[in-house]
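cache lookup: miss for this entity combination. No prior model stored, computing from scratch. Input as submitted by user K.M.:
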Amino acid sequence: MAINNLIPFSSPELRFDQFKNELSEAFQSVAASNNYILGNEVKEFEASFSKYIKTNYCIGVNSATDGLALSLMALGIKSGDEVITTGLTAPATITAILQTDAKPVVVDILETTLCINPDQVKKAINNKTKAIIPVHLHGFSCEMDEIMAIAQENNLSVIEDCSQAHGASFNPKKLGSIGHVGVFSFYPTKNLGCMGDGGAVTTNDEEVAHKIRSLRNYGIQENGEVIHSGMNSRLDEVQAAMLNVLLPHLDAYNHRRQHYARLYTELLNKDLIKLPILSDDAVYHQFPIRVKNRDLFRESLESQGLLTGIHYQKSIDQHTAFKQYCKPLPVANKASNELVSLPIQPEILDEHFGDIYSTINKVIDTFK
Ligand SMILES: *Cc1c(COP(=O)(O)O)cnc(C)c1O
């Protein structure tokens, strides 16, 4: 493979290309509708997505970051309250907590799933603690039975960050239907992604759903009055129309990701790398392997024509803005130094899988 002909790590445009006829039709129909914000496409998507996740309510919002902040607001979390979350996640999870003026309390992860460690959650609880935000990282579920038990015992709300887990489950339940609230991102590279920003909140709590519906639209209530000031965080009709086209294909798409996760597990040389767990409940938003000599390993792959990613390069305590909120995070620190995300997008693997795994095995051989 020539160096200027690299295999990409992620290519959402390949996915959009597959559905370009349906998408063009959907976009034209929105253009002709004379209704561009919170119209029929959003209503239709909210109905289909709540049916898919199996919750009573779904509220479309502008992003997962907003969805997390709006959920905290709707659950009554305020200045001085503490919210426990994980040391390995997108900065957005922490940003959302800080937006509400609450205090993030960041704890370490499990070695197995890289998700929040329930024992560390238990240790971090005090009388200011009001909520837990478990993040289903890379498409793998957190230990939801333990987390829900801890929450119940301590009267805490649970907000699942499902930004990387559309369609994943903690058997038999879909993620996003287990906590009090589930929050999803439709950023273009997610398992369900649109062509801009988008997000949604799922819940069975009628009152919380009602509050978020008003808070996403400045705080305006049905009678036109604003009692609690909100924000502008609406899902627009163009993005919702696109999500209506893609949602029916999500399960098949996730199955293709699982198929390639199994192939990687079967075919990669495991001498020097550690592979993620194999599970039919996971949706492999990423396929993160662990390598000791990570940077050199990635450079070698790139020189052989293969691009990879890192999720995440910094654990939360390694960000200047967040350091002060963190408990010691030895497991997350170590992971952030060793993680390499291999391409897992089916459209890329359909074309390049043979080249990708043989390149990786070749590089592993030179590292021995
Ligand atoms: C992508 C992501 C977010 C942020 O989603 P936006 O829609 O970009 O706000 C939050 N949490 C996690 C775990 C994510 O992967």
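stored under new cache key. The mean pLDDT is 96.
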